[in-house]
Structures are given as structure tokens and as C-alpha cells.
Specification:
Helix content: 25-40%
Shape: globular
Strand order of the largest sheet: 1-4-5-6-7-8-9-10
Strand content: 15-25%
Distance between the termini: 33 Å
Structural class: alpha/beta
Number of strands: 10
Largest sheet: 8 strands, parallel, barrel
Number of helices: 11
Order of helices and strands: HEEEHEHEHEHEHHEHEHHEH
Length: 334
């Protein structure tokens, strides 16, 4: 190999045109998914204080919310819901056929038949204790009861027309339980996206503010989810989650969060032939906004660089709050 002075790597970076020839492209909008929040009520568009630029939308305004995202070519949305029904130990409002998520799915599929509509399948926003599973009398999580509940939620979403159901509770056996329930109810074509390598991260705070889903300390159960979400200090255990979810019937795997776990995205990508999604979570989103507002970096540059890192790590699908501003950040290149 030649060396300096004959080899000058700066030649490959000298102009914008030269860089554009050889740089990797940010995935197009079809490879992006916008997570958004739907709530009961009418006429609501509530900005989420901890996630500037993101909103809670009532069902009657969800088409209005998603229309500009569809216009940009973004391929999918991921819906998170809330309820105005009393919350209980098992989160039964989550499988209400007339819940906010179910109604939002119906409206979106009518308005945008080609849009891929995904739904988060979990219980935490519907239980009175904020955990992702029913609690036994001693406060311990009832894993197997949770799987039964999650299956009911997934079937209700599929019945409403969801293209993809995405269980996020991190219960053992949840993928197998949901796959069986979908098949029993005739939803063989519904895709199942596993939050397969999901870590007990400190980056979920803004999301829990948006969803009202923070876990509560009750006798026997701590005010965190470290007992069921993967430990960031035990990556092999996290990778095993993805292996098992694939064996149980997942169609897509996910790593969550994304930016703090680029190595895990790369590792999951290397061990599977399934598509791999990466969830660029609320805390990662809000950190970039806070940095830009302090004048410590340009928001567009931060978004483009961080998104390139996620794609470079091997993500086939980027689930990100930036998806709603895709054209702004990625539409025109300097």
C-alpha cells in the first residue's frame, strides 16, 4: 500500500461532491417509523414538556397528526396509548376493543391504507402500579399471567387492523404466547416485532412522562423494571433474549435504546437473518434538543450524525421521534 505523501486520504473528503460519492446514505423515509401517543378524549394536541415537538393526540386528531408524516414518505408509525378507564392490577383496559389505540388503528388504516401501522403491546400504562405485568399478593410479577394479558392486547390490536404488534413487556414466553393467540384468532399475517434486546435504561424518563407509565414502588416490587428488562452490564443475556424471541416466532427483532447500545445493534445484526429495528428512545431525543437549546451543537447536525450511527451499526428500521421531521433533516443535502 502506498503511504504519505503519495497517499493522501483528504483527497476523498475535499469537496461535498466527492464526499457524497463515497459516504453511506441515511436510510430513506420508508425505513423510518414514527412513535406517537394517542389518548382518549376529543380535540387534544398536548405538547409533551419533556419531549419538545412531540404531542399526545386524541383519537379524533390522529389522522391530522400522521398526515404530514405520511406525506414525507415515512413508512410506519408505532402507536402508544392511554386509557380514561380505571386502572387495575392486570391492565384490562389495554385490550378494550374501543380503546384509544384500537380506534386510532381503525382511523389510520381507513385514511392511509398503505401506511404500516404498528402498536405497542404492553400493560404498564394501564395497570395501577405501572408495571408491565400483574402483581401477585406478595408484590412479585406474575410472568405467565402477563403473557395471557399481552396476548389479549395483541389480538385486539390485530382485530382493529394493526399490521405489526410489538410486545415491550419483556416477559419470558410473551412472543410464543402472542404468536399462538394470533394464529388461534386467524391473524396469521400479522407481523410480530419483538422488543427483544431491551435494556433497563435511564433513557426512558421522558417517555414515562408522556405515557404516565412510571413503575410504582409497592410492597414486594421496586419502583423500577430492572427485574425484567435486560441489564446493560450483561450483554450476553440481552443477546440471548433476541435468540429466544426469534425461536418463539418473532418476525422482527429490536434493540432499545439505540445510541447507547450501538454495539448491541451490531451484535444482533450479526446473529440473525431477521430484520433488526433500533428504537432511538425519548431520552436520546430530548438530550439532543437540550444540547442544541444550550447552544452546544446544531440540532440538524446532531440528528444526522446520530442517525447515521444507528444505520451504520446495522439497523434495518429506525424507530425515532425524528421521523416526523424527516424532510427537514434529511430531505435536502448541502
Amino acid at each position: 500500500m502506498n503511504t504519505f505523501p503519495d497517499l493522501r486520504l483528504r483527497r476523498m473528503r475535499r469537496t461535498a461532491g466527492i464526499r457524497a460519492m463515497f459516504d453511506l446514505e441515511i436510510p430513506g423515509p420508508a425505513k423510518w417509523c414514527w412513535p406517537t401517543f394517542v389518548v382518549p378524549g376529543t380535540g387534544l394536541r398536548e405538547e409533551i414538556a419533556s419531549m419538545p415537538g412531540q404531542f399526545r393526540w386524541s383519537v379524533d386528531r390522529i389522522v391530522e397528526a400522521v398526515e404530514p408524516v405520511v406525506r414525507q414518505g415515512v413508512g410506519s408509525v408505532l402507536l402508544f396509548g392511554q386509557t380514561d378507564r380505571p386502572k387495575d392490577n392486570g391492565g384490562s383496559a389495554a385490550w378494550d376493543d374501543h380503546g384509544a389505540v384500537q380506534e386510532a388503528v381503525r382511523r389510520l388504516k381507513r385514511a392511509f391504507p398503505e401506511l404500516t401501522v404498528m402498536t405497542d403491546v404492553c400493560l404498564c400504562a394501564y395497570t395501577h402500579h405501572g408495571h408491565c405485568a400483574p402483581l401477585r399478593p406478595d408484590g412479585a410479577l406474575d410472568n405467565d399471567a402477563a403473557c395471557e394479558c399481552l396476548a389479549k392486547v395483541a389480538v385486539s390490536h390485530a382485530a382493529a387492523g394493526a399490521d405489526v404488534v410489538a410486545p415491550s413487556a419483556m416477559m419470558d414466553g410473551q412472543i410464543a404466547a402472542i404468536r399462538a393467540a394470533l394464529a388461534e384468532n386467524g391473524f396469521d399475517d400479522t407481523l410480530l416485532m419483538a422488543y427483544s434486546t431491551k435494556f433497563a435504561s435511564a433513557c426512558y424518563g421522558p417517555f414515562r412522562d408522556a405515557e404516565g407509565s412510571a413503575p410504582q414502588a409497592v410492597p414486594g416490587a421496586p419502583a423500577d423494571r430492572k427485574g425484567y428488562q435486560a441489564s446493560y452490564a450483561n450483554p450476553r443475556n440481552g443477546l440471548l433474549e433476541s435468540v429466544l424471541d426469534e425461536r418463539e416466532g418473532a418476525d422482527l427483532l429490536m434493540v432499545k435504546p439505540a445510541l447507547f447500545y450501538l454495539d448491541m445493534i451490531q451484535s444482533v445484526r450479526a446473529q440473525t437473518l431477521l430484520p433488526v429495528a433500533a428504537y432511538n428512545v425519548s431520552g436520546e431525543y430530548s438530550m439532543l434538543i437540550a444540547t442544541a437549546r444550550q447552544g452546544w451543537g446544531d440540532l440538524g447536525d446532531l440528528v444526522r450524525e446520530s442517525s447515521a450511527a444507528i444505520a451504520r451499526a446495522g439497523a434495518d428500521l429506525i424507530i425515532s421521534y425524528w421521523a416526523s421531521r424527516y424532510a427537514e433533516f434529511f430531505g435536502a443535502r448541502a
